[in-house]
Amino acid sequence: MPRRIESVMLNGPVGRLEALLEEPDDRGPVEAALVCHPHPQHGGTMHNKVAYRLARGLRKAGCVVLRFNYRGVNLSEGEYAHGVGEVEDARAALSFLRQRYPDLPFTLAGFSFGSRIALRLGCERVGARRLIAVGFPTVYKDVSFLATCKLPRVFVQSTHDQYGPLAELTRLIATLPDPKSLISIPAEDHFFTGALHEFEQAIVGLGAGIPAQT
Fold this sequence. Notes:
Blueprint: E1 5-12, E2 15-22, E3 31-36, H1 49-60, E4 63-68, H2 84-100, E5 106-111, H3 113-122, E6 130-134, E7 153-158, H4 166-174, E8 180-185, H5 196-205
Parallel strand pairs: 3-4, 3-5, 5-6, 6-7, 7-8
Antiparallel strand pairs: 1-2, 2-4
């Protein structure tokens, strides 16, 4: 069965959003996943290498994956909205994904700034099966939105993340309600330099279509 790869323009809150929809290579999808990219004001796009590896790992696990560009990034219309508008962009992208695959369970995932977007949206209890936060940046001190979130959350962090030091993240996770888990990847920096393959394999290992383990 040929894999579906589709470039789409979604209807976002302030204009069109550029997106890419990809199904698994070797089977029909058993889960849908939305992937949110890193900070748009620091060069982040849906083609960021970590976001790409995150999406590919989820596809290998059996997910159909939607990546998208926030407002003002590449062909997406609008302008940066300080994280608030970007959550609304993610909401619009998720709505498209859910309409396309209404019968599949779904995951929200993101890298760096995108991990905060995915967690913010998911912790509103929109029905996600799990939330995957990659390279969660603890440099942003507002984490109040995590305090009561009880959806399964999987944090995946480099051992040398300069924006989310592992020890700091470990302390934060200890304060959060269950279910939750942390996967640390020995890597050189926030971008998993030297360990992108290992990072991708860890994402594949999370599987799809079954509850996340805590």
